[in-house]
Amino acid sequence: MSDEMNFSDEPIDAQQDFDNWEPAPEFAPPPAAGTYQTYLHEIRDAKEFESKNGKRLNATLDLKIIGGQYDERAINWQRVSNMEFKRQNGTQSSLMMDMVKCAGIAQAPRSNKEYYEVLLGLKDRGVGASFKTQIDWRGFCTNCYEVRLMALTGTTSAEAAKAAATPENKKEASKFATKAKNYRAFPTNPNGTKADSFICADCKNEVRAQVNIQRFLP
Ligand SMILES: [Zn+2]
To answer: Do 145 and 79 have their domain in common?
Structure first.
């Protein structure tokens, strides 16, 4: 026999929004643009893709910040690939290679499989394999993107538009949908902090800050 009859019968309704309930947000407010000490917290996804240089690996990662006012704050859903790019000084690297180098990996991974194993190792070591991450914000209006893409492709649904769009269509729609290019372009709150969302001037939908990795540093 349980003691449930002894539970308090005092109404608790005043302390909860049962009728106006909303699910917990998936995304915490993003940390301000800047450079943070970070570690690899989670590998959400990793898959190979065909590039002009052959098969490359694309990983979707969650990082976490170490120390300071944003201690343990997540930087989620970051796509990091080992597709090479050329720096201005002519040397070649990739965002993934920058990350593993900055985390102190001495031996170059030779394959996508080895890159993935290195990522798993960094995740297991957590704060013990930290590196610096420089981030910025972008305000991207998903609604404007879909509306512009439908107009460019002559389709009537976002799915059809995405299927029919050329890379040029997507580029043009992205340009139109980018309503804030960086952190500084976001509105400032009365208390001086940056607002991490604003109302799109074109379609009146809410645009929330996306965090983009600019570069990794040792
Ligand atoms: Zn919009």
So the answer is: no
